[in-house]
Design a protein that fits this description.
alpha/beta; Archaeosine Trna-guanine Transglycosylase, Chain: A, domain 4; five-stranded mixed sheet; 14 helices; 38% helix; elongated; binds adenosine-5'-diphosphate; binds the ligand N[C@@H](CCC(=O)OP(=O)(O)O)C(=O)O; nucleotide-binding; RNA binding; transferase
Length: 366
């Protein structure tokens, strides 16, 4: 099994504003992916396009807006999309395998481990997992919406060599290039700051959803998981290979961090925090740079009805997120001892562990 490359293709690259699949474009991407496989890489495809491929067949004249209309369109379009990939990969001698995932699947450790084992087995057998969000069952509040984030989470799970997010623009510009002719491309990014996020706008087409902003959020998660990312375009034969070889038409997001174990990925990216703990400046420093556990003395405030074993989000006094961890106290216990030194805590309450969050059960996020 070769090094793994996760490639995400957006609706705007596969369909037109009027809806329906553009088979020529799809065949082009498939031949690019086949050439990566030929070069020895394992390839995972995350593809959008189900809604855009399906809405016209149901009589809609443009991409529908209501959730149930989009879900119905996706039910039609996902089958069309998959049929097209199977035919096209089949012609190149490859087997395509459909995997549909929701946010709920990612937040359930057993389910996501099953999905990971399935993907690994498919790759071992030389097949190409083709992933999309399971649109027909994803509820509005819990929807990823676009596939940028799914592609980053999958790249982290598979500890991929690289995440390639293909879109209709050749990378991140200093402003939306559709609206600002003077916008310049940013070639390399080593940290995604809030200022950089401000440069990125929404979608430029009526079929795409996330825009550049959701691609930056995805790149940030991939970088945190130790996977470098590329956001750009593949329009000519060989472009995808150039992207992998570090000379593609787009923006590279570099990372010096190592891959995260699946347990830490779950904690950081998939778990649902049930409470919030605000820590003082000393504790913030200890968590961010010292690799230390959080002790009751550093707790300034807390909210939420959490219990021992639950995941909580930790913020600094300014309210900015620092990270997440598994808490060793019930909320009522921690309220009673917040800010106290450890000897005092032991005199007042009985806890299995003095650390509020042990460093082994902690991940720094920002
Ligand atoms: N700073 C920026 N740099 C590049 N593209 C941007 C920027 N801000 C907004 N965009 C828009 O993001 C669009 C790509 O996102 P989107 O339409 O969601 O595509 P996809 O369907 O591939 O996910 C581009 O067409 C562009 O108009
Ligand atoms: N799961 C949806 C993705 C919707 C979408 O447009 O996403 P994207 O093109 O990645 O911004 C679909 O297949 O239609």
């Amino acid at each position: 099994m070769g090094e793994c490359i996760v490639v995400k293709i957006g609706s705007s690259s596969l369909t037109s504003d009027e809806g329906g699949l553009n088979r020529n474009k799809l065949d082009f991407f498939v031949s690019e992916l086949s050439s990566l496989k030929k070069a020895g890489y394992s390839v995972v495809l995350v593809t959008s396009g189900a809604v855009a491929a399906g809405f016209r067949a149901l009589g809609f004249t443009s991409r529908p807006k209501l959730l149930h209309e989009k879900q119905a369109s996706a039910a039609v379009g996902q089958a069309l999309l998959m049929q097209a990939y199977q035919e096209s990969f089949g012609r190149d001698g490859h087997t395509a395998a459909q995997i549909l995932l929701t946010r709920t699947d990612f937040s359930n450790r057993r389910r996501i481990e099953c999905a990971l084992m399935t993907m690994e087995e498919l790759l071992r057998q030389g097949a190409i997992p083709v992933i999309n969000e399971n649109d027909t069952v994803a509820t509005d509040e819990l929807k990823f919406g676009d596939n940028d984030m799914i592609s980053a989470l999958v790249a982290n799970l598979l500890k991929a060599k690289q995440l390639i997010i293909l879109t209709d623009t050749d990378g991140l510009y200093t402003a939306d290039p559709r609206k600002n002719k003077d916008a310049r491309r940013i070639e390399r990014v080593s940290q995604i700051s809030e200022d950089l996020m401000q440069l990125a706008g929404g979608s430029g087409s009526s079929v795409g959803t996330g825009g550049m902003r959701s691609k930056l959020e995805a790149a940030r998660i991939a970088m945190r998981g130790g996977v470098p990312a590329f956001v750009g375009r593949a329009a000519e034969p060989g472009d995808m290979r150039l992207a992998v070889d570090d000379i593609g038409k787009g923006t590279y997001f570099e990372t010096k961090l190592g891959n995260l174990p699946v347990k830490k990925q779950w904690l950081g990216f998939h778990s649902m925090p049930l409470g919030r703990i605000v820590v003082d400046a000393g504790a913030e420093d200890a968590l961010r740079t010292g690799g230390k556990s959080l002790l009751p003395a550093g707790v300034a405030e807390l909210s939420g009805d959490f219990h021992h074993g639950d995941v909580v989000e930790v913020t600094g006094l300014s309210g900015d997120t620092i990270g997440r961890g598994i808490v060793n106290y019930d909320a009522w216990q921690l309220k009673a001892v917040a800010g106290m030194n450890s000897d005092e805590v032991k005199r007042r309450i009985e806890v299995s562990r003095i650390e509020v969050i042990h460093r082994d059960e902690w991940i720094t996020l920002k």
